[in-house]
Amino acid sequence: MSTFTIARLTFFEAARRRILLAAFLLGIVFLLVFGIGFHYIMRNIESSFRGGPLELNEIRNFLLMAGLYVVNFLTVMMTVLTSVDTVSGEINSGTIHTLVSKPVRRWEVLMGKWLGFAGMLTLYLVLMVGGLIGYIYFRTGYSPPNPLQAFGLMWLNSMLLLSVSILGGTYFSTLANGVLVFGLFGVAFIGGWIEQIGSVLPNKAAAQAAANVGIITSLIMPTEALWRRAAHEVQSPLVASLGFSPFGTSTYPSNLMLLYALGYLLVALALALRHFSHRDL
Amino acid sequence: MNTDIPAIETKGLRKVFGDKVAVSDLTLTVERGEVFGFLGPNGAGKTTSVKMLLNLIMPTGGEGRLFGQPLSNPPVRSRVGFLPEHFRFHDWLTAREFLKLHADLYHMSHDISQRRIPELLDLVNLTPHSNKRLHEFSKGMLQRIGLAQALLNQPDLVILDEPTSGLDPVGRRLVRDIIRDLRALGTTVFLNSHLLSEVEITCDRVAFIKHGEVIRTSDLKSLVEGELSVEIRARNLTPQIIAELSRWSNNVRQDEEHLALTLMNESDLPEVNRFLVEQGVDVYAIRPEHVSLEDLFIQIVGTDGGL
C-alpha cells in the first residue's frame, strides 16, 4: 500500500535528517533538567514541610502541570516545524514529481505523509508525557488523575496542528504556511489567556466578554482549548478550586468543544486531501 | 495486449494558467515502439505538455489517453517510466534505497525488486556507489539514477523530460545508448528535448510545438533517406560531363573545381562517383549533406524562437 510506503519514507526522512535525534535528545535533556529540579525542590520542601501527604501531592501536581505545559509547547513546535515544509517544499523542489507520477493516488501520498508525522509525534509525546509522569511516580509514588485522558488530548492537539499545517502546505509556500499556522496558534493562545484572566474578574460583564473572546478564538483554532482541557484532566481538584494558576486552568472547555476540535481536524485533513488531489504540481 | 492502441493519444489537450495559455492544442499520436521526439523552443509548452501526460498538471480542456486509458487513471502509470527535468530526488536516500522506494511505489514484489535493483545499478554504472547518498552525487550520476528509476518497472512507455540538458558528453551518450536499447526492446520512448542533434540521432518521428500547439509532425527516416545536397571537388571536368550529370540531378552548379548538385536519393551517390571516375575525372572529395533537423526546425518554428 503506497500510503505506508510514503509514511515510512516520511518517518525515515526525519530520522535520516537527524530531526528525530535532535528532538529526542533535547526531550531527554528537558526530562533530566525537570527531574533534577523536581528532586531538589521536593527534598527541600519535604524536609521542612508541616502539612500532610495531601498537601504534598498538591505541590507535586503543580510541578507536574508546569512540566506538561512545557511538553505541550515543545510538541506544538515540533509538530509545526517538521511538517510545515513537507508538501510545499516537495512541490517547490520537484521531488514530488517522481512520487506522484507512479501508479499511486495523490491522496495516498498525502495520507502517507500525515501518518509518518503522526507516528513520529506520537512517539515523541509518549516519551515526554510518559517520562514526566513516570519519573514523578517513581520519585514520589504520586500519580495525577486521568493521565491517559490528558495524553489523548495533547495528542489530539498535535494531530490537529499537523492537519492544519499539511492543509496549508497544499495551498501556500512554506514560509506563508508557517506564518499562518503559528499565527492561528497564537490567536488561540492569547484568546485562552484572556478567558482565563476574565474568569477571575469580579466584574460579571467583563468576565462574560472575556469568556466570549475565548470561545471565538477557540472556534477559530481549538488548540488552546485542547490544552486547557488536558490540564483540567490532570489537575488535582484542590488546585483547581483555588482558581487561577499559571499552568493549570480555572475554566475548562466542554465536551462539545472537544468534538468541535475533532471535527476541525477531520475537515482540515479532508480539505488537504481534496486540494492536493486536484492541484497542478 | 492490444498493440493497435497507441501508447499516447491526445486530442486538443489544453492548459491555461490564469490568463496565460501554456498549451493551446496538443493533438498527437505516438504509436507503440516509436522513439518520438518532442521539439520546440523554450516556453513553447513542452514541459507543461509532458506534465499533463503524467497527470501532474490537470488539463483545462481536451482529452488524452495512455494505452487507451485516461490520463487521470493511476494504474496505467504502472506501465510508464518518467525521468523529470532537473533530476531532483530525495537526496538523503542512498542509491539503493531510492530505487527500493520507487520499486515499492510501482507495487513491485520484494523478490522482483531485489533482482531488478542490482541490474539497474549495473546498467547505469552506479554499482560502486549504490550505498552512497544521492546528495553526494554529481549531476551526471543523478541523471543516471533517475534513468534507473524510470526503467525499474520495465515500462512500455518511457517519458524523458530534457534528459540531457546540462550534461557532459558521457552522460548524453548513456542516454542515447539506453534509448537505443529501449527501441530494441520495443519500448515506446517520448523524448522532450531542445537538443536537436540528440533528437536527430535517436528519434523515429518528431513533433514540433510552438505557442503551445503541435504545428507539424514528421518522419525523421524520410528526412534522412530523402533529398541530399552533394559537394564534389574534382579536376578535369568538361562541359559534356557536367551536362551528363543531369541524369541524376536537375540542379548542378560548377565553380572551377567545385561542383554542387542535389540528389533525390542517397543510392545515386555511388553511381555518380563511378560515372565521374569512368569519364577520367580526378575526384578529390565527395561530401553529401542531408537537410538537417536544425534546418527543418528553423523552417518550421522560425527564427523568432516562438516568443
Briefly say what this structure is.
The complex is a heterodimer of chains A (281) and B (307). By secondary structure, chain A is mainly α. Chain A contains twelve helices and no strands.
What is the average per-residue confidence, as pLDDT of chain A, rounded to a whole number? 91
- The CATH fourth-level homologous superfamily of the largest domain in chain B: P-loop containing nucleotide triphosphate hydrolases
Oligomer: heterodimer
Give the biggest beta sheet of chain B: 6 strands, mixed
Lateral arrangement of strands in the main beta sheet of chain B:
6-7-8-3-9-10
**Number of structural domains of chain A:** 1
The number of helices of chain A is 12
User: Alpha-carbon distance between the termini of chain A?
Assistant: 22 Å
- Strand proportion of chain B, as a percent range, falls in 25-35%
- Mean pLDDT of chain B equals 88
Overall geometry of chain B:
elongated
Task: Summarize the largest interface: chains and residue counts.
Answer: A-B, 22 and 29 residues
Number of helical regions of chain B: 10
CATH structural fold name of the largest domain in chain B: Rossmann fold
The total count of strands of chain B amounts to 14
Please bin the fraction of helical residues of chain A: over 70%
